Amino acid sequence: MTRASKTPRLRAPAPTRSVRTSTAPRRLPLLAAVLALVAVVATGCVRFPAEESPPPTATADPLVLPGVQTDVPIEPPPSSEACNATQTLRPPAEMPEPARMPPGSTMAEIFERGRLIVGLDIGSNLFSFRDPISGDIEGFDVDIAHAIAEAIFGDPQRVEFQVLSSAERVDALRDHTVDVVIKTMSITCDRLDDISFSAPYYVASQRILAFRNSDIRGPAQLAGKRVCAARGATSIGRMQSIQPKVEMVTTSTWADCLVLMQQGQVDAVTSDDAILAGLAAQDPWVQVVGPSLGEEFYGVGIPKGEDDMVRFVNGVLEELRATGRWQEIRNRWLSILDSGYGAPQPSYRD
């Protein structure tokens, strides 16, 4: 497809979709959880309650959350191996200097606009969340976004964030509402039918979040239990395939899953270990349990056909790995995890 035949790029988004227009906290019941996260960031540790103390139980008047779905259909488990999904395009032999993007390129269009528009959410603590004190959006994914903006503009702050649910990510790229999506987005064969991906920038492992005093230690104990996941996440299909008797509940955000768990409306949450670690950092009553249920390779989502942008982002990721900045980003946000895969190594198909 020639650049002239592409869908016109980036119509101005509706103001309500911009993070900048939504500065108030989303819901008061999470205030204590947010303050707990602040303590973790500041001290690097969490004080857990005594063993004999009971966890929160179901509330008489639970908070009604929008978008909760209980009749979740069976989904296929995610697949990345059948199509070699993690293989990607090689970076350019020489990366362009910041503020000197190749004429006619996707990056030049972004530069002319003056900002990189990034789709993410603010409910994935440690990856993308709003700091309750400064109001800034921070996290692992946010730092990746700043690195791409710095490579284009020479200024890492030239970023506009658009809040997306997990289910909205692919549509936002197809509609050119955003330039890229950086939102703990797993690279799968199904998604490659609609969008493109960078090389993996993080490898996660799907696990389970449960109450500390529960008997849940793995998927075997989830038969007949209600388990939450964000709508559109690959963890849904994998959990249904591993434990067919599970009762999945879906919400718009991972933060909503934690609220449902705190209210006693679900028994557990399943997602990638890094996302679950962010939830556990907010609530000392819960913990990440069980073995790995499968690996997830996070990639930067890019509109299909923008191969120049794929190569450019892969060049940014190469630089982050080579200079040690990737490890610095991981150490800053994910030191709460007791293990890690390190920076994933790319596999190029050309």
Fold and architecture overview:
With 350 residues, the chain is an alpha/beta fold. It folds into two domains: 8-16 and 81-202 and 297-339, Periplasmic binding protein-like II (D-Maltodextrin-Binding Protein, domain 2, 3-Layer(aba) Sandwich), CATH 3.40.190; 58-77 and 204-295, Periplasmic binding protein-like II (D-Maltodextrin-Binding Protein, domain 2, 3-Layer(aba) Sandwich). It is built from ten helices and 16 strands. Strands 9, 10, 11, 12, 13 and 14 form a six-stranded mixed beta sheet that branches. The chain has a three-stranded parallel beta sheet with strand order 6-2-7. It has a three-stranded antiparallel beta sheet with strand order 3-4-5. Helix 6 (235-242) links the parallel strand 10 (226-230) and strand 11. Helix 3 (140-153) packs across helix 9. The longest helix is centred in the last third of the chain and has 17 residues, at 307-323. The chain is globular, with a radius of gyration of 20 Å. It starts with 30 loop residues before the first helix and ends with a strand. The model is unreliable at 1-53 (pLDDT under 50).
List keywords for this structure.
350 residues; SBP_3_CS; six-stranded mixed sheet; alpha/beta; Solute-binding_3/MltF_N; disordered N terminus; three-stranded parallel sheet; D-Maltodextrin-Binding Protein, domain 2; transport; Bact_solute-bind_prot3; signal
